[in-house]
């Protein structure tokens, strides 16, 4: 992931790493290269500009021009800025409910159902939780079957109501079932559409209102770049979600979504999906991601 961005950033530091005497012109060229690399990674123009402006200010403040190793200092400044662009610190999911209700949102194909299974598996195996998965995508029988298969794989029960087309009622009944049977996390998968539409938004807003979830996660395909950011904004305006899940980071995603989403919607990225298998999930640490980008 982000290979191209990593290569480009590495190259942009070359000028500063290779020369004895550093001039303001060298720094300006490096910043220009960094900005181009960010734009090519599908980072929004304004974010890329602000990023390099901030780096420039820090570079001048920390006297890059007279530093013994200006290249290294610059890499550190860029790393810190990348970390802060992606949210600064790791933010975990809120599991304080009794039971905790986690609502999944996002477009069809973003990876919601797969991620629901991954999260249930993670909470079960790493946090000793007892999750219940809920099939709330009532329009696609295939989605219900997919969740059932996932549930079997990870040995987590899946709540379904054959023939019931009301996801609000299903979600409420599932929570009741969880209380009765002692499940402490209820993960509600919901229907998505290929594009944002009013009916989908109304439906998920109604589920939110009815079940008052501890956590609403917005799941988005990182390969969709700036579209991912725009969709995030639309969902957040409507749902005021709590965290972002970036899926398909194992593909050749350019990185724009990972770098931009946080500053556009001001919500943390909490998890990433790194493959189709049920254990292909990572919690998101901005500093570790910045390390990976800069190699
Ligand atoms: P939903 O419509 O949002 O529920 O999306 P699905 O969970 O059905 O996922 C859509 C497709 O993306 C499926 O083929 C998944 O196997 C695939 N997928 C989901 N997450 C990832 C991921 O992190 N990496 C890769 N490579 N594929 C993924």
TrEMBL record:
Keywords of the record: Cytoplasm, GTP-binding, Hydrolase, Nucleotide-binding, Ribonucleoprotein, RNA-binding, Signal recognition particle
Residue ranges of domain SRP54-type proteins GTP-binding in the record: 268-281
GO molecular function: 7S RNA binding; GTP binding; GTPase activity
Localization per record: Cytoplasm
Catalytic activity: GTP + H2O = GDP + phosphate + H(+)
Coiled-coil annotated spans: none
Binding site for GTP: 106-113, 189-193, 247-250
Broad class of where this protein is predominantly found: cytoplasm
CC per GO annotation: signal recognition particle
Enzyme Commission number(s) from the entry: 3.6.5.4
Broadest EC class assigned to this enzyme: hydrolase
GO biological process, one term: SRP-dependent cotranslational protein targeting to membrane
Domain remarks: Composed of three domains: the N-terminal N domain, which is responsible for interactions with the ribosome, the central G domain, which binds GTP, and the C-terminal M domain, which binds the RNA and the signal sequence of the RNC.
Family recorded in the similarity comment: Belongs to the GTP-binding SRP family. SRP54 subfamily.
Function recorded in the entry: Involved in targeting and insertion of nascent membrane proteins into the cytoplasmic membrane. Binds to the hydrophobic signal sequence of the ribosome-nascent chain (RNC) as it emerges from the ribosomes. The SRP-RNC complex is then targeted to the cytoplasmic membrane where it interacts with the SRP receptor FtsY.
UniProt subunit comment: Part of the signal recognition particle protein translocation system, which is composed of SRP and FtsY.
Protein's name according to its UniProt entry: Signal recognition particle protein
Native source organism of the sequence: Maribellus comscasis
Gene: ffh
Residues of the full protein shown: 1 to 295 of 446
């Amino acid at each position: 992931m982000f290979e191209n961005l990593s290569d480009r950033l590495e190259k942009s530091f070359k000028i500063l790493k290779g020369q004895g005497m550093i001039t303001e012109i060298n720094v300006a060229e490096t910043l220009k290269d960094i900005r181009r690399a960010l734009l090519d990674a599908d980072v929004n123009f304004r974010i890329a500009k602000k990023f390099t402006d901030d780096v420039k200010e820090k570079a001048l403040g920390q006297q890059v021009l007279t530093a013994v190793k200006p290249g290294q200092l610059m890499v550190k400044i860029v790393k810190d800025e990348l970390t802060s662009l992606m949210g600064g610190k790791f933010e975990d999911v809120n599991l304080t409910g009794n039971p905790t209700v986690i609502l999944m949102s996002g477009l069809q194909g973003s990876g919601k159902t797969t991620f629901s299974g991954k999260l249930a598996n993670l909470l079960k195996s790493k946090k000793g939780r007892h999750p219940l998965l809920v099939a709330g995508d009532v329009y696609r029988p295939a989605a219900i079957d997919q969740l059932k298969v996932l549930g079997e794989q990870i040995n987590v029960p899946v709540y379904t109501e054959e023939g019931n087309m009301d996801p609000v009622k299903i979600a409420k009944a599932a929570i009741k079932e969880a209380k009765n049977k002692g499940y402490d996390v209820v993960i509600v998968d919901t229907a998505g559409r290929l594009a944002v539409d009013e009916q989908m938004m109304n439906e998920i807003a109604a589920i939110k209102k009815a079940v008052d979830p501890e956590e609403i996660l917005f799941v988005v395909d990182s390969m969709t770049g700036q579209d991912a950011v725009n969709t995030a904004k639309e969902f957040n305006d409507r749902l005021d979600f709590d965290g972002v899940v970036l899926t398909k980071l194992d593909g050749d995603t350019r990185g724009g979504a990972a770098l931009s989403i946080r500053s556009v919607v001001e919500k943390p990225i909490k998890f990433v999906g790194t493959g189709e298998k049920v254990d292909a999930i990572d919690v998101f640490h901005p500093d570790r991601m910045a390390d990976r980008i800069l190699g």
